[in-house]
Amino acid sequence: MATEIRVPTLGESVTEATIAQWFKKPGDAINVDEPIVELETDKVTVEVPAPVSGTLQEILVKEGDTVEVGALLGQISEGAGGAKTAPAAKAEAAPAASAKSAETVDVVVPSAGESVTEAEVGEWMVKVGDMVKADDILVELETDKAAQEIPAPAAGKIVEIAVKTGTTVHPGELLCRIAAGEGAAAATAAPAKAPSAAKGDGGMPPAPSAAKMMAESGISAAQVEGTGKRGQVLKGDVMAAISGGATQQTSAPAPAVTVRAPSAPSDEVREERVRMTKLRQTIARRLKDAQNTAAMLTTYNEVDMGPVMELRKQYKDLFEKKHNVKLGFMGFFTKAVCHALKEIPAVNAEIDGTDIIYKNYCHVGVAVGTDKGLVVPVVRDADQMSIAEIEKKIAEFGRKARDGKLGLDEMQGGTFTISNGGVYGSLMSSPILNAPQSGILGMHKIQERPMVVNGQIVARPMMYLALSYDHRIVDGKEAVTFLVRVKESLEDIQRLVLDL
């Protein structure tokens, strides 16, 4: 009697999944509730357990295939599967040592989202022969939207690395193979080998530029405190260590290096060539496409930040105590933008061929700078949220961006973007549109300037605002009116409270 294995219900809004990995192959004995296959959706990863004990009779879909909820994945022949061991013919054909580690686990490129069809292989954290534990990070993949760490699905020994750093791969392609069994026991008993002797405390090897500078300076990774992701040593860390007094090691002689000594240092020696990440390539392409496609224009204004600053000063402690999040400026700006978008809907629209799509909702993107590049997570339905809810969501995005944990679904679907260059000290700039959106607001540094108020010259905390817009869909009058509405909401903060 055969029992069907089908895709389970994965959630109210999830209709399909990708086959990430089969844990069993046809002919394998399985026990009831033992994981058989791993499915990946755009929100979660799900293991499908065996509904009965028996033998896996048939696999109907391959790893990397996309299937709908309820689709047939395979079949189990019911019987004494749990007690069944490997077939005798296989046991005789392999030596005893091989029988312990006969199972080889393929690590493949996971599906990264509906709009992501390829990724670039980043730095490998392991090499062939290394022992790894389950969930140890093997390699980092870079897509055009984010970086994704690939963990080991099982403990064992790395027996093959199928692709090199810099290779472009697609979902379902083989990355490496792990021999489980004998290697699993060894990996559990002892930590995995470091792929390099110069790793930071967090297990990440130094960045190439940092490794080169350490070699030239004669200092070790132990003398440098890494500030990168998971303790990775960056070039700036090495420079800081050198300026802080780190000296060349004397415990062992430095390896002999043949160095040409020209009379004057050549430019080539002082240059550094690094591979552009997939994310950086995409940022460059999208920004240039926006310039080439949209009739982009920028209008400027300035806002007196005094009322907002006074409100923050008065209520920031009470606000943080009640909502467990700090009261920043982004909540006020996001609410002010939502008010203005409702009045000037063209700034919240986009062009699709010869059509204009007006969005009757406000999904506001908030630009966040990371060591990998610029990402823009989206606060969905910001117009329906309170300032406290907006601040919590932005704080959550900030933490995820720093840790590289932002999901692709969290960076899609924005209708308008806010970019805050003021956190870096920018006094004025012209932001570039985040296509296909028609508007982006640039915030800048708050600086006291002499202003005339009621006939008197007084120092006021002023901020320049910049609205870049697509002149194909937004007229100058609409753009100026939009920016004036943002200014009025912030200078008369009661307008936000009273929804005026």
UniProtKB/TrEMBL annotation:
Family annotation (InterPro entries): 2-oxoA_DH_lipoyl-BS, 2-oxoacid_dehydrogenase, 2-oxoacid_DH_actylTfrase, Biotin_lipoyl, CAT-like_dom_sf, E3-bd_dom_sf, PSBD, Single_hybrid_motif
Start and end residues of each Peripheral subunit-binding (PSBD) domain: 205-242
Domain Lipoyl-binding: 2-77, 104-179
EC number: 2.3.1.61
Physiological role: E2 component of the 2-oxoglutarate dehydrogenase (OGDH) complex which catalyzes the second step in the conversion of 2-oxoglutarate to succinyl-CoA and CO(2).
Family label: Belongs to the 2-oxoacid dehydrogenase family.
Protein name according to UniProt: Dihydrolipoyllysine-residue succinyltransferase component of 2-oxoglutarate dehydrogenase complex
Annotated gene: odhB
